[in-house]
Amino acid sequence: QPILVLVLGDQLTRTLPSLRGRTKDDTVILMMEVWDEATYVKHHKQKIVLIFSAMRHFAEELRDAGWTVDYVKLTDEGNSGSFTGEVARAIKRHDPRAVHITEAGEWRVQQAIEEWPDKFACEVEILPDDRFLCSHDEFKDWAEDRKHLTMEHFYREMRRKTGLLMTEDGKPEGGDWNYDKDNREPPKDNMDPPAVPKFEPDEITNEVIELVGEKFADHFGDLEPFGWPVTSDEAEKAAGAFFAQRIEKFGPYQDAMVHGSDDMYHSMLSTSINCGLLDPLDLCKRAEQAYEDGKAPINSVEGFIRQIIGWREYIRGFYWLHMPGLESDNKLNAQRGLPEFFWTGETDMRCLSDCIRSTREDAHAHHIQRLMVLGNFCLLAGINPRDVQDWYLAVYADAYQWVELPNVSAMILYADGGKLATKPYAASGNYINKMSDYCKECTYSVSKKTGEGACPFNPLYWHFMDRHRDRLESNHRIGRIYSNWDRMDDEKKQDYLDTAQKFLDSLTPADSSWARNE
Ligand code: FAD
Ligand code: DLZ
Ligand code: SF4
Question: What ipTM score was computed for the predicted complex, to two decimals?
């Protein structure tokens, strides 16, 4: 009787805990394309192509290395459509002595897995996912008794733990822990960042593209051109290009936005990291090496490392600490439906339409677009967390609930009431104008505050502040904003509120069938 080892779509790592230490002659590896996973939200077409193609390539690599892989395709006869159903069928086929699985990234899937020991006659072993630096227990210990879960404090622990950018006497390299103040350069005219490598679809990917075109035609997003890395070799090439060509300027221009440029100096590696094709710690070590070799400045390298061992690990810890409640949190009582233009891109707001365009074309938008354009809009307009969660989870190729949900509900919407962020990331048009070239050619005027043609972010900002005064005024990081509001005369205030309300009333909410099958 063999051991049945499961490998899920975001576990495409040769050193996965459940694969380590197994021998080829008594192991059957089960991989399954299932309808439930492909439709629990209606994922962007390229996201499904990415996962299925990467899964099929991974299975082929394992077979070439001598492993026995039982791969269930979406259209295979008898495919039950769920992980639980497919494991049950595989148990019948292979009569294993045990099922081994690395814990799931998402709470929803982990709940299902935890029922398996009672459901199935054979032993089920669930192993911790040590592709993350910080275990669930370690994060819990760190969080315990802390009044606020400040990312920066967690990040310093991770720096100490890994020794990344630490001097021999235990001090941060360069003297500071964090160089964020040097990472806020607005874009320069005629910036021309080196192109990010795109990968020509091979036969396997083309077959998946055809499948997705057929079965998921009503899902959001362009199916082609598809150029994401789908093997660890391709992902390695993408990483190599980042370290050779773009990391140097990653830091300074991390927050800059340019119309038509989705990549800027970002690594574009999240899709590969999250499905297991790249090892996050290895990437950080290579970034550190670039600093030691004098190829990239400290603010770029520290910034990159902080995103990975800081934010990425913190977000994952935060998710498991606050699930399942985080999913339904709505502390600002936001009730408005997501505007239809999030799916169609049809809006005169040039910043939003460009971010939605890149989302549709590439299943990607960079961090500051997700946070300060799309996210800021959802916060200010009071869009309900459920709609916003569904949108972000569906449209980005790197989206899994463990990373999407804290970023959406806690970071952008403040729906957790401030457990993650010390204040809402609310901003008027001024911020977007400073950090981008969007406003220059927008139909709206960023310098106009109220009335016809005013940038909607301006009145929405005050509408948001005014309607949440009770909750936010006592927050020492934003309390002073209310003195500015109070200094305005009543007519000006009313102008802001009326302009915002008129804009909000003009929004058409999206039909729910964009995000989920009825
Ligand atoms: P880079 O800018 O090159 O950053 C390097 C790496 O750092 C990323 O690849 C990623 O692994 C990590 N990272 C950076 N910021 C974060 C963060 N806030 N949380 C977790 N990891 C981070 N990232 C996802 O991977 N999946 C998501 O579903 C996702 N949803 C997001 C939703 C919102 C509302 C916001 C504000 C951010 C979200 N992010 C998400 C974080 C971030 O926007 C993406 O990781 C990043 O844009 C990916 O592009 P990149 O690889 O070029 O990143
Ligand atoms: C995102 C995704 C999709 C679209 N399809 C599958 C699939 O058919 N089979 C699979 O194993 N994984 C898929 N995934 C990734 C899973 O959703 C991801 O592994 C879980 O959410 C992790 O908890
Ligand atoms: Fe966006 Fe306002 Fe600038 Fe237009 S003017 S691009 S809506 S911030």
Answer: 0.99
Within 10 angstroms of residue 100's Cβ, the number of other Cβ atoms is 21
Tally of structural domains, the chain: 3
> Measuring from atom 46 of ligand 1, which residue has the nearest CA?
367
Q: Which ligand is nearest to the CA of 34?
A: 2
Give Cβ neighbours of residue 271 (< 8 Å, ≥ 6 apart).
Answer: 50, 228, 229, 364, 397, 398
Could you tell me if 404 and 478 lie in one domain? yes
Task: Give the distance (Å) from ligand 2 centre to CA of residue 156.
Answer: 32
- Asked whether residue 333 is domain-assigned, the answer is no
Could you read off the pLDDT of 26-57 as tens digits, one per residue?
999 999 999 999 999 999 999 999 999 999 99
Residue 196 beta carbon below 6 angstroms from any ligand 1 atom: no
Does residue 13 belong to any structural domain of this protein? yes
| Domain enclosing residue 403, as ranges | 341-510
Spatial strand order of the sheet with 123-127 comes to 68-72, 27-32, 3-6, 98-102, 123-127
Q: Indicate whether 294 and 358 sit together in one domain.
A: no
CATH of the domain at 488: 1.10.579.10
The overall pTM is greater than 0.95: yes
Does any ligand 1 atom lie closer than 6 A to the CB of residue 311? yes
CATH number at residue 164: 1.25.40.80
Mutate which of 403, 408, 411, 420 for ligand 1 pocket (most atoms within 8 A of beta carbon): 403
